[in-house]
Design a protein that fits this description.
This protein has six helices and no strands. The protein is an all-alpha fold. It is found in: Membrane.
């Protein structure tokens, strides 16, 4: 079972980002009407930039697909790290109801990046002093 844990974690994280990115790109999920006011303001600001949300959802879709297929997994983990951090901070400060999912995403990211073989070795190389 221990050898299957990285595969399960990678597939879960990949599915969440692939599905979320695709749903955002194709406008498959309507915006919930009961969002906190600060989160609505934040989302409106991102949408006002015109380019950022399509870019973010494209990155989520591509990196989710990379995780699902197993190609360039360390690269996908590094690219998604600031996205996961932002998801956590948004929920911590603006919408605490989503905090459990943000914590699970963060734990999956940390596990795959720093503890799961064979991905952790490549990610840890980024933190070595040259």
């Amino acid at each position: 079972m221990k050898s299957k844990l990285p595969l399960i974690a990678r597939i879960l994280l990949g599915f969440v980002f692939f599905a979320s990115g695709l749903a955002g790109l194709l406008n498959l999920v309507p915006v919930p009407p009961d969002l906190p006011e600060r989160l609505v303001t934040f989302n409106n600001g991102l949408a006002a930039s015109v380019y950022f949300l399509p870019f973010l959802k494209s990155v989520e879709t591509i990196c989710g697909l990379m995780l699902l297929t197993g190609f360039f997994v360390p690269l996908a983990l590094v690219v998604l790290a600031p996205v996961v951090l932002n998801i956590f901070l948004v929920h911590a400060f603006m919408a605490p109801s989503g905090l459990p999912l943000a914590i699970v995403l963060g734990l999956l990211m940390i596990y795959l990046s720093f503890f799961a073989q064979p991905y952790s070795g490549a990610v840890k190389q980024l933190f070595k002093r040259k």
